[in-house]
Amino acid sequence: VTAAIWFRRDFRLQDNTALFHVLSSVSKNNTKWIAFFHLDDPVVNNGSLSLHHDYFFQTLIQFKERLKNLGIQLHIITGGIEQAFAKLITRYPALSEVYVNQDLVGEGMKRDQFVKKSYSDLRFHFFEDSFITHPLQVLKSDGNPYKVFTPYYKAWSKVKKAPPLRLDESSLSRYSTNDDVVDDEGELKLHQLKNLCSHSFDRIGENDALERLEHFLKVQLLNYKAHRDHPALMGTSRLSPYLKVGALSARTILYTALERQDTEGRETLIKELAWRDFYYMVYYFNPESKQKEVTEQYRSINWNQDIELLEKWKRGETGFPLIDAGMRQLQKEGWMHNRLRMATASFLTKDYLIDWRLGEAYFAEMLIDYEPSSNIGGWQWAASVGTDPVPYFRVFNPVTQSRRFDEEGRFIRKYVSELGHVPTRYIHEPWKMPKDVQVASTCVIGEDYPYPSVDHKSQRLRAIELFKNV
Ligand code: FAD
Q: Quick check: ipTM above 0.85?
């Protein structure tokens, strides 16, 4: 009998539900076991990978190395899913059990349903691992899902949540897979992907994630509520990329935070983790929401598809400093501050009136923390078409947002170098600079930095009309 663990986006040893259970079974029954990762061909553009693939594969490679040092071989199985399983079954004829942290949404869910149906000789042990609660765990008393976050959060706060599973790492080498078969094709493919990475991330993996968490809780948590909306401050945890690849579990964040003093900061952090679960639940109950608005009545909105404007937004050349700074942060780092995600998504949908799906897809391509549920939820929230969205008549003003959340323009200057010498007085509306000030600050509007690409006031009215008319 051989058992297997199928790693996906759960590259950690601690509080990894499937890993914990496969090891318990191996130790109890003294069975052989293997570990594998199924490598789908990622999209390669102009000879390089997107930043989020860079981040993902670098974490995978580091994790594989870590397992290897413990005597555990992580096999990289290539090909389509059927081909990959055929390879596994041929190579390990005694394979009978597969331990896996399952996906309940999106393409991952379809794949899990497929393998379960197609390989009935294998016993799959599916575990819920990536989120704190299961989507069916927090429901209204009549059994229906919540549509609004506040009552959801009240109920979420009360449900019993599984604590993290502790693994004794010092005993791990005892579980060596004693498996020296190497999948040449898989190794080669991984090596090729490594060479295609254009950006090297140095703070990756479980140990860094735990350090980041510790630092955040010790130094930043107290001021989290006050600082979290100001992108120039290091006010948020920046744990989202680790959560995405599973270098850290959300349960670990929750339970470690609960050991700390009960402060407003701690309560705010826990609420954010609940938002993550909320959007997961929304996607679970609305599996078509990557394409379709959750609010049915808004499915017929006639969104703009202007590619030229879309490109301006992507490049951070809208002429609105805060929006441009956010978009350039995304391009440079594959990550964007939450306040900017809200402002740039609102700008695309309400100022450019562009289809939120195009924005969602761009974020999906760029974000190293891309999480379908949170991204779809965030975009539908900003576009006012989802469940519990910002009301369509409350449109973010890009200049007011800038004045409120980047008062002195520090964040803007960091990412929009053309505006580096613009006086604070004009940093939020550089087009109002007198000509001599433009020259003195080496930022001539129309030449060094664009004029605003749209008139916010009139676009706001057009956006409201768009909603009123459906
Ligand atoms: P912190 O403020 O430190 O929060 C801690 C954790 O709570 C985060 O790591 C995250 O897991 C969770 N969290 C915080 N805010 C939210 C939120 N609004 N919704 C859901 N979970 C939240 N988050 C992603 O993880 N992946 C995405 O693809 C994503 N796309 C988004 C798109 C839009 C348009 C918007 C408005 C928000 C999106 N978010 C997404 C949510 C949020 O912006 C990020 O989770 C947050 O900025 C991550 O930074 P942090 O870890 O420093 O957050």
A: yes
The C-alpha R_g of the chain, in whole angstroms, comes to 24
Write the Ramachandran bin of 300: left for phi over 0, alpha for psi from -120 to 50, otherwise beta. Answer: alpha
Q: Is 268 in the pocket of ligand 1 (CB under 6 A)?
A: no
Which of ligand 1's atoms lies nearest the C-alpha of 342? 36
Residue ranges of the chain with per-residue pLDDT less than 50: none
Whether the model clears a pTM of 0.90, i.e. scores above it, the answer is yes
pLDDT score recorded for residue 41: 75
Query: Is any ligand 1 atom within 6 A of the Cβ of residue 342?
Result: yes
Give the position of tokens 């949404």. 105
pLDDT at 137: 97
Please name each of the domains of the chain with its CATH number. Answer: 1-129 (3.40.50.620), 206-285 (1.25.40.80), 296-468 (1.10.579.10)
**What's the order of all strands across the beta sheet hosting 74-78?**
74-78, 32-39, 2-7, 95-101, 123-127
For residue 180, what pLDDT is reported? 67
Residue nearest to atom 9 of ligand 1 (CA): 240
